[in-house]
Automatic annotation (TrEMBL):
It comes from the Bacteria. This is Enamine deaminase RidA. Coiled coil: none annotated. It comes from Massilia varians. Pfam families: Ribonuc_L-PSP. Transmembrane segments: none annotated.
Length: 130
C-alpha cells in the first residue's frame, strides 16, 4: 500500500489524500450503528459510530481482511455539527476499532438515512494484497 502525498502539500489529519494498492477488492455496504440483531443500543453519535466501525470490521473479517486493508471510507452524517463537536471522543472510538490507519475518506451531511434511528452510515472499500 502506497500513501499518495504530493510534495509540498500539508498532510491531512485523520485521512490520506490517496492510496495505491494491488490485490483482492472487498466492498462493504453502508453500516449503521446497530448490533448484529439490527437493534440500536444507543442514540449517541460516537457510540453509533463505534458500532458502525465494529460492523465494518466484522464484515471485513469474512473476507480475510482487517482494518489495515481499508483504502476508502465514506461517512454519511445527519448532522455536520454533531460530527465536528464529537472531536476527541470520535477520534478515540475510531482508533479503538480501526487503529492508526487512515485511508482516503469523504464525509458528507445527508438529509436522512434509511434507518430512522441511525446517526451515521459508513461505507468501505478494502484491498487485500495478492
Amino acid at each position: 500500500m502506497d500513501i499518495l502525498q504530493p510534495p509540498g502539500w500539508v498532510r491531512p489529519k485523520g485521512y490520506s489524500n490517496g492510496i495505491a494498492v494491488r490485490g483482492r477488492q472487498v466492498y462493504v455496504s453502508g453500516m449503521v450503528g446497530w448490533d448484529a440483531e439490527c437493534r440500536f443500543q444507543t442514540d449517541d453519535f460516537v457510540e453509533q459510530t463505534r458500532q458502525a466501525l465494529e460492523n465494518v470490521v466484522a464484515v471485513l473479517r469474512e473476507a480475510g481482511a482487517g482494518p489495515e486493508h481499508i483504502v476508502r471510507m465514506t461517512w454519511y452524517l445527519l448532522d455536520r455539527q454533531e460530527y465536528l463537536q464529537a472531536g476527541a471522543a470520535l477520534g478515540a472510538a475510531y482508533r479503538d476499532v480501526i487503529g492508526r490507519h487512515y485511508p482516503t475518506m469523504s464525509a458528507v451531511q445527508v438529509a436522512a438515512l434509511m434507518e430512522e434511528r441511525a446517526r451515521i452510515e459508513i461505507e468501505v472499500t478494502a484491498v487485500v494484497p495478492d
